[in-house]
Design brief:
With 188 residues, this protein is an all-alpha fold. The chain has helices at residues 3-12, 32-37, 43-58, 60-83, 91-107, 110-113, 117-137, 142-167, 171-187.
């Protein structure tokens, strides 16, 4: 097995062992470093952002940049909504539902679907829910923690893209597994 493949598989399985319950508990949501680390601490974060990175690879360079910008804008919007007191209902269900939708995109062939605006919209809506969830759990500066969580989210999304490029993943298999995980998260 090549070193590239070992690194890619390590990145891909780095979220194994974290749980959905670890993601949105509000504890320690106070600093820039806590924000950076936070997207790596929950199965919902790791899965959704990894899938977004996988889908972005299939969107080509321009599409991937557009998706990254949409993720950042939506994430910041979710943080802003939360800090202003506006609460989006069913945030956790929205995050899990986003995982189902993006997993389904991959299962149906992300290389064919990745360039469509609808996929970018799904990613954006998912990022909005994530930003809202983070904004609601902040116990310190929204700006500091929010910036950190945004950086962490982009890093996880980039890891998903790297995983797709280096591991030569079967997008349909990964997508099906991610969609199934989203269904389990919705049911719990």
């Amino acid at each position: 097995m090549s070193i590239k493949r070992v690194v890619a598989l390590s990145v891909g399985f780095s979220g194994v062992g974290v749980t959905a319950a670890q993601a949105h508990v509000g504890a320690g949501a106070t600093s820039l470093m806590a924000g950076i680390v936070h997207p790596f601490t929950g199965l919902d974060h790791m899965s959704l952002l990894m899938v977004a990175g996988l889908v972005a690879v299939y969107a080509g360079r321009t599409g991937a940049v557009r998706m990254a910008l949409v993720v950042m804008a939506a994430w910041i919007s979710g943080l802003a909504f939360a800090s202003s007191g506006f609460v989006i209902p069913f945030v956790e269900q929205g995050i899990a539902g986003g995982l189902v939708l993006l997993g389904a995109v991959l299962a149906l062939g992300g290389s064919a679907l990745g360039r469509h605006t609808a996929v970018t919209a799904f990613i954006g809506i998912s990022a909005l829910f994530h930003g809202q969830a983070h904004g609601l759990e902040v116990t310190g500066s929204v700006m500091t923690f929010g910036l950190g969580s945004l950086v962490g989210a982009v890093l996880v999304m980039a890891a998903g893209g790297m995983f797709a490029r280096l591991a030569m993943v079967n997008e349909r298999l990964v997508g099906g597994a991610m969609a199934a995980l989203g269904v389990v998260m919705l049911a719990s």
